[in-house]
Amino acid sequence: MSLLKVIFILSAAVLIFLFEWSNIDKDQKRERRAFIILLIGGVTTGIVLVYFPDLPSPTFLVELFFKPLSNILAG
């Protein structure tokens, strides 16, 4: 079942790439690079969450880093 989810994520990424890549001008190299990086990051995150659905959210990491700071500032 998880393999089917990964195939769906990858096929959605390919469709997004095919539709959006042609809309970005060839001289916009930074935009194309950013598009590729964000697409790969999203696909990677999706696949990791398929296999490890109980991972903590990014909010947990922010709280982990800033909670001591808020305790210091609160007094």
Low-confidence stretches: none
Task: Provide the helix percentage.
Answer: over 70%
**Radius of gyration (Å):** 18 Å
Q: Total domains, how many?
A: 1
Secondary structural class = mainly alpha
Number of helices: 3
Major beta-sheet overview:
none
The total beta strand count reads: 0
End-to-end Cα distance: 50 Å
Strand content: under 5%
Described by the principal axes of the CA atoms, the overall outline is: flat
pLDDT averaged residue by residue:
92
Order of helices and strands: HHH
Transmembrane segments: 6-22, 34-52
Keywords: Membrane, Transmembrane, Transmembrane helix
Describe this structure in words.
- This protein is mainly α.
- Helix content is 80%, strand content 0%.
- The protein is flat, with a radius of gyration of 18 Å.
- The chain crosses the membrane at residues 6-22, 34-52.
- Keywords: Membrane, Transmembrane, Transmembrane helix.
Task: Give the key terms.
75 residues, mainly alpha, 80% helix, membrane, transmembrane helix, transmembrane
Could you provide a short overview of the structure?
This protein is mainly alpha-helical and 75 residues long.
